[in-house]
UniProtKB/TrEMBL annotation:
One of its GO terms (cellular component) is cytosol. PANTHER family: LACTATE UTILIZATION PROTEIN A, UNCHARACTERIZED PROTEIN YKGE. Residues 3-83, 128-222 form the Cysteine-rich domain. It comes from Bremerella cremea. One of its GO terms (molecular function) is oxidoreductase activity. This is (Fe-S)-binding protein. It comes from the Bacteria. InterPro entries: Cys_rich_dom.
Length: 249
């Protein structure tokens, strides 16, 4: 399978280890991975701020770069959801879009639904707290949520349980927002930080040693609060855990 690796701009600039972990994991699972060097931001920050016209050129550029691949995989639920669910009204009926939106996947979604991964090597002897990001949960349906009366499922959790030594933290509220919300964290700083600290308190009571998620944006927000408040929790993107990377010190 010819897979294009889409690395979100903030991951590329601030957390390159997450991009490398995603690449290592996909190649280990037999994918022929290409990283299109011309890729740019997907336009999510602009669209979230109501600047649709500023996001449009980036959406058109995304179609130009990624349209011919068998699959597009990204370690970010929010960026994948941007392309899959929010491009339609800004690409103006581009015929490439309907096909492309069926080929873009968040990493865990791709591993579970496309590659059908049923085992992973490695040992990670830590209590892992899984944060379910809002975009991944409620727009990509990576897991069941408390708002709907549906059968329980959780694709990231399913993958973590394949790793020897992982003990999942039992949170009181599995699917509550961390408070980041992109520009919301800037416009409503106090509310955003309060929500983040509330999530961290849940992880502390559950004994979380390593906090993980499929969205580095959520983890960036939570990591900042953890460091500021000097809590003994490490933060890792799920790609790093699945790829067998060491816990950062």
């Amino acid at each position: 399978m010819r897979v294009a690796l889409f690395v979100p701009c903030y991951v590329d600039q601030l957390y390159p280890r997450v991009g490398m972990a995603t690449l290592d994991l996909l190649e280990r699972l037999g994918c022929d991975v290409d990283f299109p060097a011309a890729q740019t931001c997907c336009g999510q920050p602009m669209l979230n701020s109501g600047c649709d016209t500023d996001a449009a050129p980036l959406a058109e550029r995304f179609l130009e770069i990624f349209a011919d691949y068998d699959a597009i995989v990204a370690p970010s639920g929010s960026c994948v959801s941007m392309v899959k669910n929010h491009y339609e009204h800004i690409v103006h009926g581009d015929p490439r879009y309907e096909k492309l939106r069926t080929k873009i996947f968040e990493l865990c979604e791709f591993l579970v639904d496309v590659l059908k991964v049923d085992s992973l090597p490695g040992n990670f002897p830590y209590v892992v707290g899984l944060h379910s990001s809002c975009h991944g949960l409620r727009e990509l349906r990576l897991a069941s949520d408390s708002e709907r009366n549906t059968c329980e499922f959780n694709k990231p959790q399913q993958l973590l349980q394949m790793i020897e030594g992982v003990q999942l933290a039992e949170l009181k509220r599995q699917d509550e927002c961390c408070g980041f919300g992109g520009t919301f964290a800037v416009a409503e700083e106090a509310v955003s930080c309060t929500m983040g600290r509330d999530r961290i308190a849940d992880h502390l009571q559950a004994g979380t040693q390593v906090l993980t998620a499929g969205d580095m944006s959520c983890l960036m927000h939570l990591a900042g609060l953890i460091q500021r408040d000097k809590h003994p929790i490490r933060v890792m993107h799920i790609a790093e855990i699945l790829a067998g990377y060491e816990v950062p010190q």
